[in-house]
Target: G-protein coupled receptors family 1 profile domain-containing protein
Amino acid sequence: MALTLNSTKEELLQQLILHRSAVARSRSKFSVMMIVSFVFIYINSIMFFTLLSKPVFRDTPRYVLFAHMLCNDSIMILFTFLIGIISYIHRPTKAMCSLIMIVTTSTATNAPLNLGVMSLERYIAICFPLHHRELATTKRTYVAIAAMWFFGLVNPVTDSVYSSIFDPDFFFEQVECGHETMFRTAPWQTLFYQALNGLYYVTVTLVILYSYIKVVLVARSVSSDQKSAGKAHRTLLLHFIQLLLCLNTLLYGHIIGFMAVMLSYEVYYDVRYTIYLLVILLPRCLSPVIYGLRDEALRCVFMYYFKCALSKVKPSVNMH
Model:
């Protein structure tokens, strides 16, 4: 009898230690995610303010598109972090989760579409320099941004409306926030989601490849501006790399679903957390470095504001 009580106490003690260890790991992961998220939202905010600080940035299509990219990525980082907070405290209702999913899904879709439009702008600037000011206007840039949000909202809004109509527990049932748990109730939803996203990514890939090839051909031309063409060539290559990183976001749900079946509960959450940092968070955090700091005109003004405007002389913008 005494042996049984001792073994029971040891088992309870081991369970308590494991529980406390799991809670500690969960808190440390949450802290890392919070710090990384807010550091990069802070950097994005300074870069965004930098773009608003000069009329030349506000009126140039490529800087307007870059500002939209920063804003879009910051919203996605903020709302994915919000999902983590809500899930950490308690499971939200489907209605609350669907509102968050609408924002995160649309911003995830906007990212590759924005890259496609940025590639077209560089293609026009290099291949049709005399018509660039006429074709790539600020007004058309804002129309393109509005179109991105329209296409980005099609999938999540369709899923949310369908679920709210045909799911009687939509406003009351508590779930873990995610596409698979929220919206993939009907076969046509999965097919529609995959087909539309596939169409977006294939279209953007073709646009970037076409623009890249055309710019490379122009760069080899003797009569072209070699410096501008070379910069555009490198920028389009970065667009393609960024697109591959965005593609990982599309595959994130499939990877997570596969791991949920194959791995144990503890290992699954550890691996899911790591993949989230590498696939969701990291690509969004690279945007200021890839596109902002390599731009000489933008970098000087950014560093001025990043240092809290301690310098007495405000830098001027040298566009070239």
Notes: The radius of gyration is 24 Å. The first helix runs from residue 2 to 53. The CA atoms of residues 40 and 285 lie 6 Å apart. The mean pLDDT is 77.
